[in-house]
Every structure is written in structure tokens, then in C-alpha cells.
Amino acid sequence: MHFYDQSTIRAVNNARFYARFKWLGLGALAFGLWSLYDGYVNYPDMKVRSDAIMVIAEDELSRSELLECQDGAHDLNDVYKRVVEKLRDQSDAWARWLAIAEEKSWPVEPPEKAHTDNDIIMQYVMAGLCTLATTYFFGVLISTNGRWIEVDDNELITSGGLSFPLAAVTQIDKRKWIDKGIAYVAYNDNDRQRRFVLDNYKYLREETDAILYRMEQVAGADKIINGSAEVHPDAEK
Q1: Are residues 108 and 38 in the same domain?
Q2: What is the mean pLDDT of residues 59-78?
Q3: Are residues 38 and 125 in the same domain?
Q4: pLDDT digits over 21-32, tens only?
Q5: Within this chain, do residues 118 and 161 fall inside the same structural domain, yes or no?
Q6: Within a domain: 163
């Protein structure tokens, strides 16, 4: 017997559809941890060293040389890179940097960029946003685990506790069914009009299609708009 003809049809959530939330959550978590590391460890360390470079430059370079570094620079990093090159060209100034680096146990090579306090704050902001994103993605994954929808000859029931008689269905809108697998089911609930969304991407497709077929059979083809009635698989052979 085809499951279309079973007395009860159940569609469980589509694990393949929700797997994307796992990978998105892991990606957000990894990026958030990386941002937190940059904000708490990497950027402050680079800032201390680049600040030391700029202090040496103010002491060792002439005013005209400093102005030359600033002339036409796009941002602080442009100025910083020019300053580093000028210090390299001056043996005394560069020797001073090497001495400080040795004293502080810093790498001899200066940082590639001169990070500011705003750069550090932005890393914490990014870490916070990634935390929210991670919470959302994993929240969706956890909350949808084990979900199902079920239909028999008389009623539709969901794992969330929603239920309504198929005879209460007043309209089945299939305008998105072909392209997106979504059908909007309107039904009466104590004289109030409500809507249920049937989605064969979020739930196993064949079982969800069978549920829609059963719903149309009980409610009647006259309730269908923006589409045609589902066909029993055996009728297509």
C-alpha cells in the first residue's frame, strides 16, 4: 500500500534543509571567536608596538619628514607604513626600535598595520553580532529538531500542539507550491480565520506532498486557488 493511502501520514522535519543552520552557526561562532581574539589579544598587541614606532618617529624624524609621510596618505595605515620605511633608512632610529623590541621581547618586524582603539572596539562589536547570529542559527536547529506534521482522514496535527479539522479548511492557496513548495492553508477556528503554512522544503517532501493531497481530497478541490489539485502517484503511471 502506498503511503498516500495510509490512514495516517506523518512528515518529519527535513534534516538536510536545516543542516545549513548548523554550518552557518559554526561559521558565525568561528568568526566571532576570531574577532574576540583580535580584539582582546592581537589588535592591542599590534597597537602597543605601532604606537612605539610612532613615538620613535616623532623623536627621530624631522618635521618635514613627518609631513612628507602624511602628505597624500589615505589613512593612518598609509602614514604608519611610510614612517616605518623612513625609520628603516635611518640607522640610529632603527637601532632604537630594535633595542625596544629586544627589551620588550617583541618581534623585530613592526606590525603590518597601526590599529586604533576604534578598531579594537569594532572587533568586540563583531564578536557580539556573531554571538547573536550563532544563538539564532543553533536556536533554529534545536527548536526544529523532531518537529513533525501529521494528517489522518479528519484532522491535521503538529508536534507543536496545533490541530484543526480538514473539514474546516476554507482555502488552499498554491501560488508558491510549484516554485517553492509552499501552500497557504486557510481554515476556520471558532469563527476566526487562521492560516497554516505547508512547506515541503522544511519537512520531508514526499510525505508533505501526500499530506497536501489528503487535505485536498477531504476539503475539496473547490478550495484550491492559484494551482491545480495534487495527483495520486499511482494515477501518474
Answers
A1: yes
A2: 87
A3: yes
A4: 999 999 999 999
A5: no
A6: yes
Q: Domain span at residue 121? A: 18-143
Q: What confidence score (pLDDT) does residue 237 get?
A: 57
Count of domains in the chain?
Answer: 2
State the Cα–Cα distance between residues 215 and 224, nearest whole angstrom.
10
Domain assignment present for 11: no
- Residue showing cell 620588550: 104
Angle, vertex CA 90, rays to CA 86 and CA 94, nearest 5:
90
Grid coordinates representing 126?
A: 563583531
Contacts 24+ apart (CB under 8 A), 77-80: 77/113, 77/114, 79/114, 80/50, 80/53, 80/54, 80/113, 80/114
Q: Which of 143, 172, 190 is the endpoint of a domain?
A: 143
Q: Which residue has the cell 490512514?
A: 7
Q: Is residue 3 part of a domain?
A: no
Say which DSSP state 13 is in: B
Instruction: Convert the pLDDT of each residue in 76-134 to its tens digit.
Output: 889 999 999 989 988 888 999 999 999 999 999 999 999 999 999 999 999 999 999 99
Q: Taking the model in full, what pTM does it have?
A: 0.76
For 182, what's the count of Cα atoms within 13 Å in the CB-facing half-sphere? 9
211, 4 Cβ separation under 8 angstroms: no
Q: Any idea what the CATH number is for the domain that residue 190 is in?
A: 2.30.29
- b/e code 4-24 from CB counts within 10 Å (16+ = b): beeeebbbbbbeebbeebeeb
Residue 226 lies in a domain: yes
